[in-house]
């Protein structure tokens, strides 16, 4: 987010947790850039996501990039791990495709899905997490192959262990 605002890109943050200090920090980096926040839980039904996106598109007119970065690492919470790491990502992506898909008159766009190296090399201690990240890699790969007809470029970023609240 810090790098995006440095490049004069409007930033819309969708998250379960409102963090006014983080928003203020982003605005301070580049005061001429608009940074806005909307409460969002990726596990909501796709209709709710579409409704939120309609609000955002009506306000901003264009959205160029979607970064799907929600994720949890808790193999004891199987359904929630799948819901956040995979189903939520698929639903959010599917909802924004209604706005971007050139076959529907959209302008195209860019989707960046956050995967993990575990999507390629599973960690046996967290098989559910690893499985969701493998699903993200394959889902995104399929979307990427559709880019010539949808106008939507899709790719994954697959970091190794990273210092975040996840770990």
Automatic annotation (TrEMBL):
Its EC number is 1.1.1.1. The keyword Oxidoreductase applies. It comes from the Eukaryota. It is an enzyme of class 1 (oxidoreductase). One of its GO terms (biological process) is alcohol metabolic process. Keywords: NAD, Oxidoreductase. PROSITE patterns: ADH_SHORT (PS00061). The keyword Ion transport does not apply. GO terms for cellular component: cytosol. It catalyses: a primary alcohol + NAD(+) = an aldehyde + NADH + H(+); a secondary alcohol + NAD(+) = a ketone + NADH + H(+). Transmembrane segments: none annotated. GO terms for molecular function: alcohol dehydrogenase (NAD+) activity. Homodimer. Belongs to the short-chain dehydrogenases/reductases (SDR) family. This is Alcohol dehydrogenase. It comes from Drosophila gunungcola.
């Amino acid at each position: 987010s810090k790098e995006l605002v440095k490049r004069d890109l409007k930033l819309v943050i969708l998250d379960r947790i409102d963090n006014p200090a983080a928003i203020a920090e982003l605005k301070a980096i580049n005061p001429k850039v608009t940074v806005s926040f909307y409460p969002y839980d990726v596990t909501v039904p796709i209709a709710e996501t579409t409704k939120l996106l309609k609000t955002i598109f009506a306000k901003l007119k264009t959205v160029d990039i979607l970064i799907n970065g929600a994720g949890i690492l808790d193999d004891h919470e199987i359904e929630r791990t799948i819901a956040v790491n995979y189903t939520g990502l698929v639903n959010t992506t599917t909802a924004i495709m209604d706005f971007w898909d050139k076959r529907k008159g959209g302008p195209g766009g860019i989707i960046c899905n956050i995967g993990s190296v575990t999507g390629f090399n599973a960690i046996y201690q967290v098989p559910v997490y690893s499985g969701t990240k493998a699903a993200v890699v394959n889902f995104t790969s399929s979307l990427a192959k559709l880019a010539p007809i949808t106008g939507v470029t899709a790719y994954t970023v697959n970091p190794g262990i990273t210092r975040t609240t996840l770990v």
